[in-house]
DNA sequence: CATTTATATAAGCAATGGCTTATATATTGA
DNA sequence: TCAATATATAAGCCATTGCTTATATAAATG
């Protein structure tokens, strides 16, 4: 799998709002079981299951089985292809980058 | 248009490899006419035209008419929604971010 | 073992997407 | 005004996508 293909996979996976919402919820909650994600979701259990599979296939989340439950968390390197690609376009978002840089430094202290 | 919708638009637009290639070429060449993009493209003129429209609608490129030619360049703020969104997930790509930070500093000097 | 709970898979459907060919609309210049 | 060039739009086609309902699998528990 080439870098371009991985990037395409990440972009396509995050492009769907419902699926991105699932990802964001996993990120926010740290670790969630699939059931938890179904509750409070607009779509059905199979739909959530399909989205989780897509997120996993794209390398964006990791699953950990615990009995009947499967817990999901964000994969640390999942956003890597996206970040790397954006790195090539620094000149086009340098200003915002400065903001992030400042933010990071504030967070450190 | 909400921030989430803009992000969806940017992600969907960049998710197609052919269209992303067009964007990358515009970024690389600085300013290109549509004809220039058609030459050396795998797809037809209408296809390129459709991709350019999508890129423009997503706010990723800007067009400048000059006689019969329309020149495209990357819109500085186009990647903004993506960068902003990624900002919320710093913890998941902090390491790569450090690399970028280092790279930026090297570039400055 | 039987039932309940958690998740995945199958099948089908309507909508979307990206491409093509054909044609329309500028814009320029002879 | 006519022909050539540059780009856009229209229409149609096929593949993909996201959803649904129905069903299958897996694991825990009585």
UniProtKB/TrEMBL annotation, chains A, B:
It comes from the Bacteria. Keywords: DNA-binding, Transcription, Transcription regulation. Residues 1-104 form the HTH arsR-type domain. PROSITE patterns: HTH_ARSR_2. Coiled coil: none annotated. NCBIfam families: HTH_metalloreg. This is Helix-turn-helix transcriptional regulator. It comes from Bradyrhizobium jicamae.
């Amino acid at each position: 799998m080439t870098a371009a293909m991985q990037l395409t996979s990440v972009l396509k996976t995050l492009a769907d709002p419902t699926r991105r919402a699932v990802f964001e919820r996993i990120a926010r909650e740290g670790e969630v079981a699939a059931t938890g994600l179904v509750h409070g979701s607009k779509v059905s259990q199979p739909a959530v299951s399909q989205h989780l599979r897509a997120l996993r296939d794209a390398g964006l989340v990791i699953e950990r089985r615990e009995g009947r439950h499967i817990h999901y968390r964000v994969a640390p390197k999942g956003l890597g292809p996206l970040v790397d690609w954006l790195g090539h376009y620094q000149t086009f978002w340098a200003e915002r980058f400065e903001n992030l840089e400042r933010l990071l430094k504030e967070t450190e202290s």
